[in-house]
């Protein structure tokens, strides 16, 4: 147990905040609801971002940048959309400050804008306004654009990374000449989301479709990846929307087909955000702090030397430097922590807190015996190995940890997905924690009542649902869908 | 001369906008003053950004992210700072929209914020608010943080990339325990700016210090890189500020020194922005459009085949594909433009417009003779070479173009920096275009009057100034500094 961290089992929320604060991932900004992502947290985000970016580009997408500011009237053009975002907007109304007679800074009333401006909560409206200018014919399609940006959704109950007024994300916005292609795109992206979650974040996710009540404001269908956190609650980790022709109609974006007809353009949009950092913390963290999968760990191998003075440090460096260079040349992110006046024990705690997947320890005992001690963060096991094998061993170990962390998280998730046969059982499990896979009659009303009574929501209608012979857990009627229920962040 | 582009010599402003529009670099956003960076423009920005990012990280800097929103009161804390930014702020005053009786969307008056929020024009204030929380002792220093972000400065006269209400940039904010280290940091960054400009953007820059009138609002000293555009006007391409203890005092950020004293922290801040894309266009562009230095060209080599049908295309591909793969494996960004139903001539124009540094042309004549035709965009020369030598030739050619474009731009700049001995001569040259290197008496008043009379400003006091024996070009008094005057963007 690391100093100063509330144990996870004792108070999950406090543990979460402690990890973020003590591992220096993020801090609270001065405006309520805002967040500062500190360098270590941002380094993780950069690795996550780079992997998504690589996969988007490999599938033909380009990055672009659209304005932060959206005219108020745009938001109103798609009815569901404005409904979904109206209550959480930052609204710009003026463009100048002035100094009043008391020499205090005031908003200059004469700078009032003709039309108020919305700070983007998402960019469908401004992007479809531009797409109207860019799309004339089928030859202009598809458009496959992504942007990395900040968005703002006013939040009262802040939780770092999970729920903040401003967050960083990517938002893809694609335009297509037919429905099939747009749906295919929507699902292709969901597949990338799942793939990066599994293979890089070591985070198992369930995939499926959202119910009408839970889908994106303006979508025909919303698909999602849902993950189970360490407290058995669900987190929506990414969404991909098939938008049909909704935004094309709202912004009058038609194209000339190959047969010289006119048709509205079909669309998708999709996003993942810095919320994923919160997911990583909660899926993998333990009482000692963060545990990072090697793929997204800013420091994959930390080297901690035991030394009392510069002379001793020099001897250790002579011993280890060639191996450090070799690991580094292989593309492994390795760091020698030779900070003076800090005990190795202190450094051990700090790097366990920060979740570095492996640690190499070297003192004179290791040098005498031509060995090195290797610590793995996932299982906290230590092993003393021959120094000659350190390169292969460490490199294999990183792969092994990456795989093991996925297996651990996957076992945990599968162990905590339950089938139930009565609503009492349902409530009991929702209270204790876990996902429930059961039948639902497909009505908004049952969904709403279950939410009111238990706080559980339908996380998704899984792609592999088997609704036949199931009954709705609430009404007992024949199930329309098999769904996943859980309390969610 | 490419279709639809105004010749540069005829109307430089219109030429500039034409290049941006026709090469699909950017477009105007719906809110006045905002800009959309289109995929091709953004791909250039990504290459520029990646190079800066690499160099910042190599010199010990980390990225982080601070909030977009700044409390109004923060801006007022540093007197010069608020003076500098008060007149161009986007101010958030409300947080909700509502539907009124006419079913139109209105700002909900009940959502008025207690304190208005400023959308960051730059982040010194919010960052120094955080640094107060993070800095206690000399052990916490230095802090070397950079962020890539959007900022907003209300603009009435929009010019794409050069002057927009929102733009993308990086802003570095460092904190140090002493003046020397902070000044050293300020200059180290200026050196990176110069280095990337010269070696990657192929854009020669003059370096020096800004006058008091031109320095950053809140800085002790502002250092800059200044470039000469194709119309001989100056563009401030990057600035690095030594902030002294100004922001530390405004935000009460003290630290405990090694000797157990208390002192205010010393600071630097520095930035380059998407304005650099505008500079690249204006330094290198010609009547055919953009010319991109290979280092920042999204497509370094475009391959244009001459074919009439799929069969012919297949034969050409069989011939060229192995070489394309080889170039690609060497890290060269190569693209085969095999779009059907488009003439090679059309593609030539398009890629010249988009500034691809080299073009490989292949028809059956080339295949028969085992050759390939190579076109270089910088000089528009064509050469027919043996196919066996295409890899070495192209790879060397890219280096050669990179160097040549710098030499061309540098010659142009040097040819257009003038010495003058009278104020009449000064006015004459400022009117015709060019930089003037001359004496200045150091007074705000002369500087102001020259600006009023000629629109020329002091771009910088160059590091290699030699003010001895010079007189002020305006007052005739002994010069305090040798300076560079020019009309600027």
Question: Overview of this structure, please?
Answer:
The structure is a homodimer of 489-residue chains. Chain A is globular and about 80 Å long. Chain A is of the alpha+beta class and 489 residues long. The mean pLDDT of chain A is 96. The first copy, chain A, is built from 14 helices and 25 strands. In chain A, strands 3-9-10-16-13-12-11-24-25-23-22 form an 11-stranded mixed beta sheet, with helices on both faces. In chain A, strands 18-17-19-20-21 form a 5-stranded mixed beta sheet, sandwiched between helices. Chain A has 3 domains: 12-284, BirA Bifunctional Protein, domain 2 (2-Layer Sandwich); 301-397, Rossmann fold; 417-486, 2-Layer Sandwich (Translation Initiation Factor IF3).
Give a quick rundown of the structure.
Two copies of one chain form a homodimer. By secondary structure, chain A is an alpha+beta fold. Chain A is 35% helix and 27% strand.
Mean of residue pLDDT of chain A?
Answer: 96
Distance between the termini of chain A: 26 Å
**Total number of helical segments of chain A?**
14
Number of domains of chain A: 3
Per CATH, the class of the largest domain in chain A reads Alpha Beta
Q: Can you tell me the CATH architecture of the largest domain in chain A?
A: 2-Layer Sandwich
Count the beta strands of chain A.
Answer: 25
Question: CATH superfamily of the largest domain in chain A, called what?
Answer: Bira Bifunctional Protein, Domain 2
Helix coverage percent of residues of chain A? 25-40%
- Poorly predicted runs of 5 or more residues of chain A: none
């Amino acid at each position: 147990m690391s100093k100063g961290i509330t144990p996870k089992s004792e108070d999950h929320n406090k543990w979460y905040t402690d990890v973020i604060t003590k591992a220096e991932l993020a801090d609270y900004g001065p405006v309520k609801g805002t967040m500062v992502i500190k360098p270590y947290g941002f380094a993780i985000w950069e690795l996550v971002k780079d992997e998504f970016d690589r996969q988007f580009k490999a599938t033909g997408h380009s990055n672009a940048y659209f304005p932060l500011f959206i005219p108020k009237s745009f938001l109103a053009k798609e009815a569901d959309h404005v409904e979904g975002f109206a209550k959480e907007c930052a609204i710009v109304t003026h463009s100048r400050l002035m100094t009043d007679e008391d020499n205090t800074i005031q908003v200059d009333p004469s700078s009032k804008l003709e039309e108020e401006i919305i700070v983007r909560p998402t960019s469908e409206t401004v992007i479809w306004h531009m797409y109207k200018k860019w799309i004339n014919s089928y030859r202009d399609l598809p458009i496959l654009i992504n942007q990395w940006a900040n968005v703002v959704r006013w939040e009262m109950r802040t939780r770092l990374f999970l729920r903040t007024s401003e967050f960083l994300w990517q938002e893809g916005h694609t335009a297509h000449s037919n429905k099939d292609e747009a749906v295919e795109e929507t699902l292709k992206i969901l597949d990338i989301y799942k793939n990066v979650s599994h293979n890089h974040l070591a985070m198992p996710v369930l995939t499926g479709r959202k119910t009408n009540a839970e889908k994106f404001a303006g979508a025909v269908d919303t698909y999602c990846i849902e993950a189970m956190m360490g407290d058995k609650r669900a987190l929506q980790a990414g969404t991909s929307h098939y938008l049909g022709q909704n935004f094309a109609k709202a912004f009058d974006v038609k194209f000339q087909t190959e047969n010289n007809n006119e048709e509205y353009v079909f669309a998708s949009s999709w996003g993942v955000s810095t919320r994923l950092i919160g997911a990583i913390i909660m899926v993998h963290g333990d009482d000692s702090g963060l545990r990072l999968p090697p793929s997204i760990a800013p420091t994959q191998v930390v080297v901690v030397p035991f030394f009392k003075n510069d002379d001793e440090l020099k001897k250790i460096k002579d011993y280890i430097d060639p191996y450090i260079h070799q690991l580094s040349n292989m593309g492994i992110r390795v760091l020698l922590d030779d900070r003076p006046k800090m005990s190795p024990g202190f450094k051990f705690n700090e790097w366990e807190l920060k979740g570095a997947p492996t640690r190499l320890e070297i003192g004179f005992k290791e040098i005498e015996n031509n060995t090195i001690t290797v610590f793995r963060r996932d299982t906290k096991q230590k092993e003393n190995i021959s120094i000659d094998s350190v390169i292969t061993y460490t490199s294999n170990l990183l792969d092994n940890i990456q795989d093991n962390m996925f297996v651990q998280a996957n076992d945990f998730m599968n162990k905590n997905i339950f089938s139930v046969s009565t609503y009492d059982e349902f409530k009991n499990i929702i209270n204790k924690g876990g996902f429930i896979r059961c039948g639902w009659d497909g009505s908004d009303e049952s969904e709403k009542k279950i939410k009111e009574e238990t706080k559980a929501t339908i996380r998704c209608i899984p792609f592999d649902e088997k609704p036949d012979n199931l009954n709705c857990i609430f009404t007992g009627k024949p199930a329309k869908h098999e769904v996943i229920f859980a309390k969610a962040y």
